[in-house]
Amino acid sequence: MTVTHALEGGFGxxxxxxxxxxGILDAERERQATxxxxxxxxxxxxxxxxxxxGSPLANKYAEGYPGARHHGGCETADAAERxxxxxxxxxxxxxxxxxxxxxxxxxxxxxxxxxxxPGDTVLALGLAHxxxxxxxxxxxxxxxxxxxxxxxVDAETGHIDHDQxxxxxxxxxxxxIVCGSIAHPRHIDHAFFREVADEVGACLIADAAHPIGLxxxxxxxxxxxxxxxxxxxTHKVLRGPRGGMLLCGAELAERVDRAVxxxxxxGAQMHTVAAKAVAFGEAATPxxxxxxxxxxxxxxxxxxxxxxxxxxVTTGGTDTHLITADPAPLGVEGREARGRLAAAGIVLDCCxxxxxxxxxxxxxxxxxxxxxxxxxxMVLIAGLLASVLRGGTEPARxxxxxxxxxxxxxxxxx
Length: 414
Ligand SMILES: Cc1ncc(COP(=O)(O)O)c(C=O)c1O
Hints:
This protein is α/β, with parallel strands linked by helices. It is built from 16 helices and 15 strands. Helix 3 (47-53) packs antiparallel against helix 11, helix 4 (75-92) runs parallel beside helix 11 and helix 12 (286-308) runs parallel beside helix 15 (375-390). The protein is globular. It starts with a helix and ends in a 6-residue tail after the last helix. Pyridoxal-5'-phosphate binds at residues 41, 103-105, 108, 132, 134, 180-182, 207, 209-210, 233, 244.
C-alpha cells in the first residue's frame, strides 16, 4: 500500500461525512507539504504512527497499568502498553519506562511529584537562558509550587556556566537539579550534573524532551546512566506521536508510575501509547540511527551557512538538531524575522536569547531531514532565509523557491 493510500483511507470517510473539517485538515496537509518546517520541536511521524493514532484503541479507557486496570476489556490495551514499555526500556537501556504521560510537561510534573514536595528548592536552567516553562516559570505550576533557582549560560561562550551551577547548588542545597533546555544547542554534560547533585544531596532530573531522539539514534549522549529520572517527549526528533515518557531505575519505578497515575493523570491515551510503541520500534532500526546522525550533520551545515550569511549563531554552532541565532546583523529582530519568514514559507520560532535585549530565531532540522534533505539543501535554506531577512527578495518569490524545494522532498511521498 502506498503512503498516500494509507493516509487516504481515513481521509476519504472524513471528506464524505464532514467536508468542513476535512477541508481544514487538507489545508494543514498542504501547509506542511509546501512550506519549510524548521520548528525545532516538530517532525513528520511515519504513516505507521499515524495509523496507530487513528486505531480503535482511541476508544479504550484503561486507567491503571497492564494487569491492574480499573476497567474491563483491557487485554489488547495491556499488550500495546507492555510492548511500548519493553521497546522503550530496550531502546534507552533503562530499568523502567512509563509511557503514559500525556505530554512532555506531564512527564516533568510526574517527575517532580515522584521526588519533591511543594515548597522544595529546585535548581534549573533559567527561563531567559533556555529553560522550559516547567522549569520554574511563574505562569506554570512549577514556579507556583516550588522554589526555583536559575543557573545560566556564559555571556561569552553561550555554554552552560558550570561554575555557576556548582556555586548555586552549594549555596541553595536544592532538593533536585534539572538539566535540559528548549533552546540550548550543545550536549549536556550529565556526568558533571550528577557529580554536583551527589555533592549537595540532590536528585537529578534530566528533561531530555529535545535530544531524546538523538539519544535513541546514538547521535547524542544518554542521560539514562546519570539521572534519577529522565523525562522526555516522543514527538520531536524521536518522530513518534505527541506525548511524554519517563525513564528511571528499578528503585523509583513504583514512585514514577504512581506519580503519573493516579497522582497527575487519569486514563492513559491508549492509541497514543500504541503509536509510541510503533515509534520506539522504528527508532531501534539502523535507518533511524542514520537519520539521527544526518539530523545533526544537517544542523551543523545549517548553522555554518547561517553564520556565513551574517547571523550570530549562539555558541558558534550546534551538537544537536537545534540552532539559535541572532538575526540583528541583518537589520531585523527575531519576532519580526519570524513573521517575514512565515510569509515566505519558512516556518520557525523566535526565542529569547541569553544576555540579549532582542529576540532571536530557533531552528531545527528534524523535519527537513525526515523529508530526505541533506547538507546541500541546508545551504540553500540559509540563503533563502537570509535573503528574505535582508529584504533582498520578495516573500512571494521565496515562496516559489520554497515550493520547488519541498516538492522535491515531500514529507509523505507516494
Ligand atoms: C525541555 C522541554 N521540556 C518540556 C517540554 C514540554 O513538552 P509538551 O509541549 O509536550 O508539554 C518541552 C517542549 O518543547 C521541552 O522542550
